[in-house]
Amino acid sequence: MRSRTDPDTDARGTLLVDIKASSELKPGVNLPASGTVSTINDVARLAGVSIKTVSRVMNNEPNVRAETRVKVQEAANLLHYRPNLLARSLAGARSFLIGIFYDNPNPSYINAVQNGAIRRCRESSYHLLIEPQDAHSPDLERNIAGLLATIRLDGVILTPPLCDMAVVLHAVEAAGVPYVRISPFLNPGRSPIVRMDEARATYEMTQHLIAMGHRDIGFVLGHPEHGGTHLRYQGFTKALSEAGITPRPDWVKQGFFSYESGIEAGKSFFAEGKPRPTAIFSSNDYMAFGIMGVAQQMGIRIPEDISICGFDDAPGSILIWPHVTTIRQPVEDIAYAAADILLAKAEVEDADGTKRDTDRMLPFELIKRNSVGPV
Fold first, then answer.
1. 248-305 pLDDT tens trace
2. pLDDT at 2
3. Taking the CA atoms of the chain, what radius of gyration do you get in angstroms?
4. How far apart are CA 83 and CA 43, in angstroms?
5. Fewest C-beta atoms under 10 Å: which of 60, 109, 153, 181?
6. Beta bridge partners of 99
7. pLDDT at 4 over 80
8. Minimal CA–CA distance to 179: which of 94, 86, 101?
9. Domains along the chain?
10. Where does 144-266 show beta strands of DSSP type E?
11. DSSP notation for 29-73
């Protein structure tokens, strides 16, 4: 015999809807028993709408009345309903998957890209496929073409250096998959782009060093295959030129965006018997960490004897001492915007039929910390 504290059930043991849960939901509709999986039919019955309306709400489509959208969402929440990805894919032309292709030695950068894209995907019940690629593989084009032929994607995000590689772009375009590039250097009109102004960022950081009295400034280049490397060096040389400073070729070192290449650059800068700059601008924070490690091993004080700054605002920039003056690049927001462009294409046009903006430029921030001081 059922106690008074037991929830109301019918003869089959199916829970009855608590009408108090929402005055908008259709009364008298049974909830599935505990342990069963709710279906779109259950949501439609509880909300008192058609299955098509539930589908449109779950897919975040426009032209659904606000009150109807709320009612469907309340019903879905009450039923713990989650759309089946395979069923959604089979029912329409979308896979509800977008991909990220990358080849980048910077782990914090890739982690931030993934986090930003995932955050946007979850807002539209999409999923993200993460695919590392070897940019130097002779089979790169075939690998990407095979992947796109095997897995149906609604869009692809390309990060440096893949975003500037002709074989990658050809493979994606041949598959007919929409794509967005993050921070490319070449062919800006070929696809939608999301970036920050890297040249302007290095220009402003170099101006900051000059304002602190530095005129002997070294620079560490990033990986030559990354477009950001060239943009950052452009900003650096522009600021020097405007200040009447000629960069010394022996103070421009080749790096590869890795800690190890920063160590090699540091050893070259601080070689015994060679003149050294009063400040060093590293194209990313990981190389700056390597330079700082060499300086500290040699008893060179930072910033008293030499100022060192970086780029990206990697997590380690506030974990070492002195904390690193750097450029904060909004990597997560950039990836979020790239996914947003793809999902805008994958979902529907705006209600009025207007074309949404594609290319997006996000702001950067110069973070002044302890690794830079006056001459």
1. 999 999 999 999 999 999 999 999 889 999 999 999 999 999 999 999 999 999 999 9
2. 41
3. 27
4. 11
5. 60
6. 129, 156
7. no
8. 101
9. 19-83 (1.10.260.40), 95-196+332-362 (3.40.50.2300), 198-330 (3.40.50.2300)
10. 155-158, 179-182, 193-196, 217-221, 252-254
11. PBPPPTTSPP-HHHHHHHHTS-HHHHHHHHTT-SS--HHHHHHHH
CA separation for the pair 296, 180 (Å, rounded): 42
Side-chain half-sphere CA neighbours of 5 within 13 A: 0
Our measurement of the distance from residue 268's CA atom to the centroid of its chain's CA atoms, rounded to an integer in Å, reads: 34
Determine contact, residues 100/157, Cβ cutoff 8 Å. Answer: yes
Distance, CA of 64 to CA of 54 (rounded, Å) = 10
Dihedral angle sign, alpha carbons of residues 113, 117, 120, 123: negative
Asked if 361 and 199 count as a contact pair (C-beta separation under 8 A), the reply is no
User: How far apart are alpha carbons 343 and 192 in whole angstroms?
Assistant: 13
Q: Which residues, listed in sequence order, are joined to residue 309 by a DSSP beta bridge?
A: 281, 325
CA distance 230 to 160: 12
CA 50 from centre of chain: 37
Instruction: Measure the CA angle with vertex 139, ends 138 and 144; round to 5°.
Output: 135
The residue type of 180 is V
Query: Are the C-beta atoms of 192 and 181 separated by less than 8 Å?
Result: yes
Cβ neighbours of 36 (radius 10 Å): 11
Q: Are 160 and 182 in contact (CB under 8 A)?
A: yes
Is 206 in contact with 163 (CB distance < 8 Å)?
A: no
pTM here is: 0.75
Is the CB of residue 246 less than 8 Å from the CB of residue 222? no
Give the whole-angstrom CA distance, residue 185 versus residue 178: 19
Distance CA 309, CA 63 (A): 51
- pLDDT tens by residue, 293-338: 999 999 999 999 999 999 999 999 999 999 999 999 999 999 999 9
Of the pLDDT bands very low, low, confident and very high (cuts 50, 70, 90), residue 1 is very low
